[in-house]
Amino acid sequence: MSGRERVRRSALRWVLLLQGGALLMPFFLLAMVALGLAIPGVVPLGPPLAWQFAGLGLALPVAALTGLLLPPLRALEASAVRTLCGVPREALATGPATSWASRRRTAAWFTLHAGVGAVVSGMTLAVPPMAVVLLVYPLFPVLQEVEWSWPWDHAGAAVWTAPPAGCALLLGLAAVAHGTGALLARCAPVLLGPTPADRLAAAERRAADLAERNRLARELHDSVGHALSAVSLQAGAARHVLDTDPRFTREALAAIEETARNAVTELDSVLGVLGLPGRPDGPDRPGHSGHSGRSGRSGRPQEHRQQPGDGGPGRAPSLADGLEPLLARTRATGAEVRLTLDPGLGPLEELPYEVSAAAFRIVQEGLSNALRHAPGAPVRITLEAHRAPHGPELVLGAENPVPDVPVPARASGGRGLSGIAERARLLGGSARAGQEDGVWRLTARLPLRPAPATGPRTSTGTEADMGTGTTTSGETNADADADTDTETSTDTVAEAGRESSG
Q: What local confidence, expressed as pLDDT, does residue 389 receive?
């Protein structure tokens, strides 16, 4: 640090000390008035000087009580310290003092700041005028005729010793201001820094932010990833029959249009969660009818009716409102998809929304895996109600034959199977996937009365085996020809293994 920067920092800290004296002034005046009323003969702000120090001593407890009872004071003091003392921002708390521990620290800081600032402010008011008088003392005989309270003969040696004494007073004031300013700068991180409760609250906010980001990443992966897989297959099919089957080409283009529109609609929902505006022609546009304009394989638009289980704009689709359109879009790629519904499950609209939305995403990811790794293979989707020891649960299955010639895995890892395991775990359920007897099977169990998640837990065997071996509910080990998954959660980094549907 250069000399000029040192002088500038010392000057700013001096300003902070003067600010502390100004903050204490109302309490000091109140204490002096109280002394004048309580003790006859005491003149506020008058001699002797001992009464001034007595008033200062009475004002400091009142200032401490103010710091204890005024939570926003910590944020104001921290802002002043950052600006004037040069203390790093991360060393100081930014919000008000919410806990009693932080309030006590704020009260201690405010008392120190105001008390030391009052002393330095008083010296700043008294020392410079006295130093100027001493500096010019030899030049003005009228000053020599005044009876001064010197510790030596004012008519002799005082004439030559007064200027050095004035310089010493100024240097002493500067030294005191520099030392007390450095003291405040050292005490500020201790008294105004974040307490353990503040650090815990900040960590919880950070964990919540990361959890929300992970959730949005899963939503985007499942919705947009499925749409892109379907669009690529539809476009490839249309390209192969462009000259020989114009009717099928028109149907494929209509399906591509519908799939892309639905993907953008779901993207608008995610942007709505983030607080960003949607498309001008999206659901938020005034006068929007709420229809998605879906079209079937015939190319005719179909009306999308809101179902009781529909999340609506800003909410993820569920089985009630999204399953049939999802199957229709998948069938438009030429894939054969069969759906088996257990009558004991009841109407899909009556399923809990959280369970229904998670099940929809799992079905979507299962279909995406089938389209990506086993194109053209028939896919079977089953939704059944089972009675488990902990209560009723929805058992969801997706299976397709493994192709004879494996499809090359993508160069970059996906997040499908780890996302499925995470969704199931958050609802208190489990998921598993793997190849059995030439068939790729994905099975998820979701309690119909989902329990709140309590953090990572270890699952064995039938609970969360996403392939082979025993894993945690957010960790999978599937076949070697699949994609590598890695997903970060708020509590753990779940290394997802390989993803495949064949």
A: 83
Higher pLDDT, 309 or 154: 154
d(Cα 311, Cα 391) in Å, to the nearest integer? 25
Closest C-alpha to 393, from 382, 385, 401: 385
Q: Which residues of 398-421 are buried (b: 16+ CB within 10 A; e: fewer)?
A: bbbbbbeeeeebeeebbbbbbbbb
| CA 244/CA 364 separation, integer angstroms | 32
Q: What confidence tier does 468 reach under pLDDT thresholds 50, 70, 90? A: very low
- When pLDDT is averaged across residues 379-408 and rounded to a whole number, the result is 85
| Per-residue pLDDT at 157 | 63
- HSE toward the beta carbon, residue 290, CA cutoff 13 A: 9
> 291 to each of 230, 262, 276, 308, 356, how far by Cα in Å?
21, 11, 21, 15, 21
Which residues are paired to 338 by β-bridges?
380
Q: Which residues pair with 383 in a beta bridge?
A: 341, 396
CA-angle at 380, arms to 377 and 385, nearest 5° = 165
What's at 406, amino acid-wise?
A: P
Cβ(218)–Cβ(361) under 8 Å?
yes
Distant-in-sequence, close-in-space partners of 332: CB < 8 Å, separation ≥ 6: 230, 234, 251, 252, 255, 258, 259, 296, 297
- Measured CA to CA, the distance from residue 282 to residue 229 in angstroms comes to 23
What's the whole-number mean pLDDT along residues 469-496?
Answer: 33
> What average pLDDT does the segment 382-405 reach?
88
The pLDDT score that the predictor gives to residue 403 is 81
DSSP sequence for 383-442: EEEEEETTEEEEEEEEEEEPPSSPPPPPSS---HHHHHHHHHHHTT-EEEEEEETTEEEE
* Contact between residue 362 and residue 224 where contact means Cβ atoms under 8 Å apart: no
List b or e across 109-138, with b for residues whose CB sees 16 or more CB atoms inside 10 angstroms. Answer: bbbbbbbbbbbbbebbeebeeebeebbebe
